[in-house]
Design brief:
CATH superfamily of the largest domain: NAD(P)-binding Rossmann-like Domain
Oligomer: single chain
Structural class: alpha/beta
Distance between the termini: 20 Å
Shape: globular
Radius of gyration: 22 Å
CATH architecture of the largest domain: 3-Layer(aba) Sandwich
CATH class of the largest domain: Alpha Beta
Number of helices: 15
Strand order of the largest sheet: 13-12-11-7-10-9-8-14-15
Number of strands: 15
Helix content: 25-40%
CATH topology of the largest domain: Rossmann fold
Number of domains: 3
Length: about 425
């Protein structure tokens, strides 16, 4: 199916048996007898098929299957509460590899494969999707999944633009969907403890934060290469401007280029700026000013918050992580690891967290499963992902234009700069839109 395929967005919402039972359980909470007994309670070690969350994977290449701090397919399959039904990728080799892994893990041949994510979303027997496509696809695929009654685990960075991120939040709320972004440290118990302690005054009032994450994305000037027969290049591009195929883009090199991603600013930025936002208590807000380096008094990209706190990008104090400077001390931490210090080089003894990145990835997919079942918002809720990626995108815009920006975090607008405001969203190639 090509990019121009027509399909029906107005798919009626169907109340699945699992959701019916959840709602019935809430309505009849006063009754003493349970509605059903979990298979795990009978000692089988795996939930009954009717209780498992059925999932489809959209994007099963680099992050989806191969793994970068844990692959989505492997972390989901490690939880017996999930049942994988489908794998989708515009690269036939990727989706065939994913099918092999899924079928072997589940002991059957039931995993269906798709080139076009829209076919997967039409399936009424899939409860949730895990999206690990390039960033320029995240918003369209998440919003369409919500419209089709699917809960969504969407890899970070949440979106390609600020307006896309807000549209994803609105879709999640409008359709009553659970949407979690892939900032795994939000499910690390040790990092939860550290950020909550910092927010509650562990080092006094936080006055400075110094963040390391890499730089902004750049225009793409890669030369043309022949398109391999196993890759649907037009569908890979989707809403992005058309350009010739290059193997670096089709693998994991797309992150460097502006049409598809925000570079290191949105890649590791969605981990480390996220720690900063979390510790500052800014999960529903953000900075009010962004100042690019000017070779004079502003040495590093600098964010200012309304309360006077400043946050810099790639100053020496960041030390490849996030440094917090408070009125009563200092701390340093790193997302995706257990390396945390407080008071210079003193190790901060935190509660135990995941012992390796793979366990951390599983912890995050486990928290998504719990939210799907309870209908409570997940640790890395889409609103949190929206606010964090907004910080990243604002930094990129300031770098690209090389001038200060004033940001209104309540209205989510750039104040008094029409040219900068145009970067809040991007035009999309037909027929793709939000």
């Amino acid at each position: 199916m090509g990019a121009s395929t027509k399909w029906n967005r107005a798919v009626p919402f169907r109340l699945r048996r699992r959701e019916f039972l959840q709602r019935s359980a809430l309505a009849g909470a006063a009754c003493a007898a349970p509605l059903f007994v979990r298979a795990t309670a009978l000692g089988s070690g795996r939930e009954a098929p009717s209780e498992r969350i059925t999932v489809g994977f959209i994007g099963v290449g680099w992050k989806g299957l191969q793994g970068c701090f844990g692959s989505l397919v492997h972390s989901f399959l490690a939880n017996p509460g999930y049942q994988a039904l489908a794998a989708c990728d515009v690269n036939r080799k990727n989706r065939d590899d994913a099918k092999g892994v899924i079928d072997q893990a589940q002991g059957n041949q039931d995993c269906a494969t798709y080139n076009d994510f829209r076919e997967l979303l039409q399936r009424g027997d899939i409860d949730a999707v895990a999206i690990a496509t390039p960033d320029h696809w995240h918003a369209i695929q998440t919003i369409e999944a919500c419209r089709h009654g699917k809960d969504v685990y969407c890899e970070k960075p949440l979106s390609l633009t600020i307006r896309e991120a807000r549209a994803m939040v609105q879709a999640a709320r409008e359709y009553g969907r659970i949407v979690q972004t892939g900032s795994q440290s939000r499910s690390y118990t040790n990092i939860q403890y550290a950020c909550e302690a910092l927010r509650n005054g562990e080092i006094g009032e936080i006055r400075e934060v110094h963040v390391s994450c890499g730089g902004p994305s750049i225009p793409c000037d890669l030369p043309a290469e022949p398109v391999p027969e196993h890759i649907d290049w037009d569908l890979w591009l989707g809403p992005a401007p058309w350009r010739p195929f290059h193997s670096l883009l089709a693998d994991k090199g797309f992150r460097a280029y502006r049409d598809y991603s925000g570079g290191g600013m949105t890649d590791w930025g969605c981990h480390h700026f996220d720690l900063a936002q979390w510790a500052l208590g800014m999960d529903d807000s953000g900075p009010v000013e962004v100042l690019p380096p000017n070779g004079k008094d502003i040495r590093w990209l600098t964010y200012r918050y309304a309360n006077g706190t400043i946050m810099t990008h790639e100053s020496p104090l960041s030390q490849q992580g996030v440094a917090f400077v408070g009125s009563a001390g200092d701390a340093w931490g790193h997302a995706m690891s257990s390396r945390w210090r407080k008071g210079g080089d003193t190790a901060w003894k935190l509660p135990p967290g995941p012992v390796d990145p793979i366990q951390g990835a599983k912890a995050h997919s486990d928290s998504f499963l719990e939210s799907v079942k309870t209908r409570r918002r997940p640790p890395a809720d889409v609103e949190i992902g929206c606010r964090t990626v907004t910080v990243c995108h604002l930094g990129n815009i300031a770098y690209w234009l090389q001038r200060p920006l004033r940001w209104d975090p309540q209205r989510e607008v750039i104040v008094g700069d029409d040219e900068a405001s145009r970067w809040l969203d991007r035009a999309k190639r037909e027929p793709w839109n939000l």
